[in-house]
Amino acid sequence: MKLIEVKALKKYFPVKKTAFARHEWLKAVDGVDFSLEKDRVFALVGESGCGKSTVARLLLRLIEPTEGEITFKGENIFKLKGQRLKAFRRAVQIVFQDPFASLNPRRTVYDTISEPMKIHKIAKGSELKDRVVELLRKVGLQDVLNRYPHEFSGGQRQRICIARALSVSPEVIVADEPLSALDVSIQAQILNLLMDLKQQSGISFIFISHDLKVVEYFSDEVAVMYLGKIVEYARTEDIFRQPYHPYTEILLNSTPGIKPGTKRRQILSAEVPSPIDIPPGCPFHPRCPKRFSPCDRIVPELEGSGGRLVACHLRTG
Ligand code: SF4
Questions:
Q1: Ligand 1: does its nearest atom lie under 6 Å from the Cβ of 288?
Q2: 73: CATH
Q3: Ligand 1 pocket mutation, candidates 226, 278, 288, 303, criterion most atoms within 8 A of CB
Q4: How far is the C-alpha of 28 from the C-alpha of 13, rounded, in Å?
Q5: Distance CA 255, CA 95 (A)
Q6: For residue range 41-77, what is the model confidence (pLDDT) as tens digits?
Q7: Dihedral-angle region of residue 242 (phi above 0 means left; psi in -120 to 50 means alpha; beta otherwise)
């Protein structure tokens, strides 16, 4: 069953060069399609600035799209109002990248975790307190109800953020780089916690990360984004065994510990082009070691079959 469907989604931000210049557009998300099935983990990966965090903000309806739609259980989330919007806000929760910035320093752990349950009228009184204690136990924290965020480590704060997301019994959690602000030793603990939640709670995840080793471990399907577009989409095991797109191949080859079929370590050349001035043809062609004659003129479509899609003339031309 499809919980979330993203169709032809675009988000352009206006950028002014001078006070008198016409708007240019920063194409953060430029025609993205994917879906999230129940009980699955869908990962969005790519370098910084590829548009994956903008997709996360759109999925939560924190910003409006330029074009396209996102449906949750068949309903366009950008048309939801009143009780239906409130139900959506309860069903889809987020865990942010930075657990330091996403907790109010003046609120106790109890206040932080109980607030969503009060807003959604899930519990009150002693039942509310019992639920907060149970949620904290689930994320591995005890006897911390009256403590403040500054008293915790980064990993403990991320546990509090996860407990807050769980407090309203969500169906989907959008996890936007949930490990990247944490020490490596803590990352494994939080990843194991997310894995337990995936297996025990029936929550589906949209997992946004630049860390391919984590994605390989945690996700069921992967979409690779480059300059606002999905350039490859496949089951996780397929993409890690044999990437089709040269960009995916280099990403995997440049990640220590991942070996997708080629022994030579490859490094991405040059910087990511500006999303305000996207190269013509294949947007990856200035950095692609396999580019050939049509690549700088013709945009490759995302095509394929059997759930395996790639936007590259080598595969589709
Ligand atoms: Fe490289 Fe051409 Fe494929 Fe783009 S279309 S990834 S430039 S081979």
A1: yes
A2: 3.40.50.300
A3: 288
A4: 7
A5: 25
A6: 999 999 988 999 999 999 999 999 999 999 999 999 9
A7: beta
> At residue 156, what is the residue type?
Q
What tokens appear for 10 in the block? 């675009």
Q: Using CA atoms, how far apart are residues 119 and 89, in angstroms rounded to an integer? A: 11
Tell me: the pLDDT tens digits for 109-147?
999 999 999 999 999 999 999 999 999 999 999 999 999
d(Cα 184, Cα 279) in Å, to the nearest integer? Answer: 36
- Alpha carbon separation from 290 to 253, 293, 298, 314 (Å, rounded): 15, 10, 15, 8
- Of ligand 1's listed atoms, the one at least distance from the Cα of 289 is 1
In total, how many domains does the chain have? 1
In the reported structure, the alpha carbon of residue 275 is separated from the centroid of ligand 1 by a whole-number distance in angstroms of 18
Q: Please report, in angstroms and rounded to a whole number, the separation of the first and last CA atoms in the chain.
A: 33
Atom of ligand 1 nearest to the CA of 300: 5
Binding site membership of 284 for ligand 1 (Cβ less than 6 Å): yes
User: Cβ(72) to ligand 1 under 6 A?
Assistant: no
What is the DSSP code string of 131-183? HHHHHHHHTT--S-TT--GGGS-HHHHHHHHHHHHHTT--SEEEEESTTTTS-
Location of structure tokens 């013509």: 280
Do the Cβ atoms of 98 and 177 come closer than 8 Å?
no
Q: How many residues does the chain have?
A: 317
| CA 153 to mean position of chain CA atoms | 24
117 lines ligand 1 (CB under 6 A): no
| Ligand 1 binding pocket includes 285 (Cβ within 6 Å) | yes
Query: 215 CA to middle of ligand 1, Å?
Result: 24
Q: Domain limits at 86?
A: 2-316
Tokens of 201: 């709670």
Atom of ligand 1 nearest to the CA of 295: 2
Our measurement of the distance from residue 200's CA atom to the centroid of its chain's CA atoms, rounded to an integer in Å, reads 21
Rounded to two decimals, the pTM is: 0.91
